[in-house]
Fold this protein.
Amino acid sequence: MATSVQDERITQPTYHEITRDIAATLGKPSRTYYLLLAIAISVFGFGVIALLYQVRFGLGVAGYTPPVMWGVYITTFVFWVGIAHSGTLISAILYLFRSAWRTAVYRTAEAMTVFAVMTAGLFPLIHVGRIWYAYWLFPYPNQRQLWVNFKSPLLWDVFAVSTYFTVSTLFLIMGLIPDVAALREKATGWRKKLYELTSLGWRGTDQQWRHYTRAYLYLAALATPLVLSVHSVVSWDFAMSIVPGWHATIFAPYFVAGAIYSGVAMVVTLLVPLRKVFKVERYITVDHFENLSKLLLLTGMIVGYAYFIEYFMAWYSGSPYERASFWNRAFGDYWWATWTMLICNGFLPFFLFFKKVRRSIPALFVLSLFVNLGMWFERFVIIVVSLSFEYEPYAMGHYTPSWVEWAILAGSFGWFFMWFLLFAKNFPTVSITEVKEIIPMPRKERPHHG
Amino acid sequence: MAKPPGGVLALYRHVDAAVDSIRALKEKGHRDFTVYTPVPNVEIQQAVGHRVSPVRLWTLAGGLTGCVSGFALSLWMSYDWPIVVGGKPIGSVIPYVVIAFELTILFGAGATILGLLYHSWRTRQRGAYDGSCTDDRIGIFVPCPAERRTAVEEMLNASGAEEVRVEA
């Protein structure tokens, strides 16, 4: 029988090449990998030492000064929850929109989501001081028959973040199953055992795909409103109070856009070295970075607009407290934080209007670092600057973070990168199955009739 | 564990060849064959002709249970410890929507995974398998008694199988 494959291999990899290339990323780690892992673990260890110091001597070692009793810890909590958002946007929302380019980058974004939520979840525990009582946050039967306050946005946060962590972890694991099964066939030693265990007996049968594709679709459909709700709920931690600078109805969409903005920036930060180190430039191309930078531009402009509207509403409301609060942000003690935020998040993204910048990977990498910096400062400005300058002049105060807080902040980056690096060497950071899905299956050439 | 059934395993490189084989098998009255693919494929799904997965019912049931649980949990606990906070009613339904929403998603997602595991287990296909089917080949396993294997082998070869082997 005369058969030939339609020749699409010149530009597109074959299924076998995809499996081979992505499996190759899990090979023997290089020295650079070990060096990065050692740095991440060391920085994390430094954070742990600072945390133990705080546990030993109490929250007094943090720089809290009344009225600023939410500082670096809550700032960093919001920062990491925000980082987590782009993962679900790329894996769930773009999946529902059948966006083909997401397939090469979504696994990295999804893994980043899980590790970012794991990092974020530490901070409320660190912030409450007595970590061993953290279970008080959850409703549980107790001797005094007390229940938690369901009217408090802080409790909504407990439910929202726990749900987000659970659902995004399930989503990540579920996406990994067919990939791990593909790797299982070639793996040896302990990895073979690991993949045999985690592939849950996957063989790609028609019945398995029948249930899997449906379940994946519904999980994506559930994750989509979830991603929008989680940062809305986080924003209500602030917006439900009457602190000037917090009490605004724009907070939910403003926070969601900011979260996606910072998350996409972190995806870029991770993908740039990853594609080089793992040699997956064939799969994560400049086009992917251009699409990510378009997302950055869109969300960055929404964030910039929100900054403008915040100032406009402070003026338009006629409230002297709102006006004073926003004047203080720009020209008060913390002017440097506000201007860092405005320049990094409001001004720099405009460079993305230039195609040259969108397609320049070094430029995007640098920009993504600035956006990450700017987004951390955004949360610092909202939380610390607003709390330090409320209604009564005699109750105003100045907060300076202590070394313990900076060390724990640094440690959180070490913790995050440690998990990401460990994941990247043991599981595929580019989805084998979904990259194959966007390439048509080979067909035999049909004879021409007539 | 019961011994896997014997039969014929065919491997394909081309999707249309595999689809032709599936149609031919169905015409001959085979219903219990297994198709292995590295990725989900619409043509193959249509040729096999399964009904929509019942996993969706698990999602619905989980979501509804979560919604009811969210309201029940927050309302019951509020009335069990009735303390006025911020001048709001003891059972404030509007703020409890957040709890109910989150539990809808949580229970819906959990039930979806349980449904996937349950139905995948219930409809598990235990025939012969080749590792290349998670890489780049499509596999079709047809369970059949020894006396019919030659006929099945010929049919699968005729529709473009790259490799056909008998699995005892």
